Amino acid sequence: TVKWGLIGASTIARQFVINAIRAQPNSEITAVMSSSPERAAAYAKENGIALAVSTLDALLGSDVDAVYISTTNELHLEQALAAIRAGKHVLCEKPLALTSADAHTMVAAAKAAGLVLGTNHHLRNAGSHRAMREAIAGGRIGKPIAARVFHSVYLPENLQGWRITRPEAGGGVVLDITVHDADTLRFVLGDDPLEVSAFTQAAGMASGGLEDGAMCIWRFKSGVIAQSHEGFTTKFAGTGFEVHGSEGSLIAKDVMTQRPIGSVLLRTAKGEEELSFDREDLYVRALRQFHAAIAGEGQPSATGEDGVWSLTSAEAALQSAKSGKSVAIDPKL
Ligand code: NDP
Questions:
Q1: How far is the CA of 49 from the centre of ligand 1 (A)?
Q2: Which of 78, 115, 212, 311 is the most buried (most CB within 10 A)?
């Protein structure tokens, strides 16, 4: 049995990850930590977790094999390093940290300790994105030329907190959503980005100098160019992911989401075909892969290194927006 401790009494754990852990055979959530004892107790009760604690030491000193970190972003580094020192496997939310240098430190620590470190880039687990990756790798669109990611949403009212007000907590749409888009582009294209040019905006929701919208242009090693749009303020935009190649196009709709929904259309000289794909819960699949990695079988669906890549990419996008210049992406891996 893998015994899990939750670091952070978060929305994402309550909505998706607790269920995903419990969906695994031989898996149990034994403890939850919140910085507030009252919130810890209430969260534990609400979610049927036996132990509620309010310090990291108490959580790491309890009977847990693995931790899931879903606190605000500035806390991930210190919490992950402490968990690794205590010999726990770590599934960490994105962005892994506030800087790619800190993310490197986490990856190196887990490696030295022989522990599994995963980044919760859930979209890699979507049947839609895996179907696109397979179609591209299988040559169904010929040579990939360009990609477009539409991932501008409306941040739900219950989440209009630290993401739009607290730069020191790692708020802003780039650390929130651009990291996912950078990772999903790498995954679907099977290619790595070399440079990015970005514009960001504050369109009325974010404060404190944070951005709530971004448009990025990416150049990949193979020569593919991609555009991505991330936002918190567009209520009616919908999401999508397109890859256009020499022999065909993949046009996916409603796929930049937490749920196993959406459609993927393949358009070629032969006409149009809807690709079929599995509709498994993204987080359940992520946890299955993570458990397998703990058992020595394969890797988490997104590794610590993948988290370094996505954070380096997001960092470069922020730097580009600030400087007005395109910025090279070098994860130093
Ligand atoms: P939340 O705002 O729900 O939780 C973050 C922290 O805020 C919690 O750890 C908690 O602190 C504190 N908090 C929560 N509710 C309250 C409250 N009512 N009053 C005071 N404090 C509160 O964040 P999310 O769940 O949206 O995000 C957490 C992490 O997960 C982030 O790193 C984010 O980037 C990532 N994320 C990833 C997603 C994915 O699909 N991969 C989706 C959404 C988020 P404490 O623990 O001390 O109680």
A1: 18
A2: 311
ipTM of the prediction: 0.98
The verdict on the CB of residue 72 being under 6 Å from ligand 1 is yes
pLDDT at 231: 98
> What distance in Å separates the CA atoms of residue 164 and residue 176, rounded to the nearest whole number?
10
The span from the CA of 202 to the CA of 138, in Å, is 41
In eight-state DSSP terms, residue 74 is G
What pLDDT was estimated at residue 257? Answer: 98
Which residues have C-beta within 8 Å of that of residue 223, sequence separation ≥ 6? Answer: none
Q: Which residue has the tokens 């918190």?
A: 232
185 closest CA partner among 309, 17, 283 = 309
DSSP 3-state assignment of 322? Answer: helix
**CA-to-CA distance for 14 and 22, rounded, in angstroms?**
12
**Helix axes 76-85 and 100-113, enclosed angle (nearest 10):** 10
Nearest ligand 1 atom, CA 121: 41
Which residues contact residue 105 at a Cβ distance below 8 angstroms, ignoring those fewer than 6 apart?
77, 81, 97
Q: State if residue 164 touches ligand 1 by the CB under 6 angstroms criterion.
A: no
Spacing, Cα 10 to ligand 1 middle (Å): 4
Is beta strand 89-92 parallel, antiparallel or unpaired with respect to 327-328? unpaired
Atom of ligand 1 nearest to the CA of 43: 48
Residue among 10, 68, 187 whose CB has most ligand 1 atoms within 8 A, to mutate: 10
Question: Mean pLDDT, consecutive 10-residue segments, the chain of 333 residues?
Answer: 98 98 97 98 98 98 98 98 98 98 98 98 98 98 98 98 98 98 98 98 97 98 98 98 98 98 98 98 98 98 98 98 98 96
Q: How many CA atoms lie within 13 A of 297 on its CB side?
A: 5
pLDDT at residue number 94? 98
For atom 42 of ligand 1, which residue has the closest CA? Answer: 12
User: Dihedral, CA atoms, 278, 283, 289, 290, nearest 10 degrees?
Assistant: 180
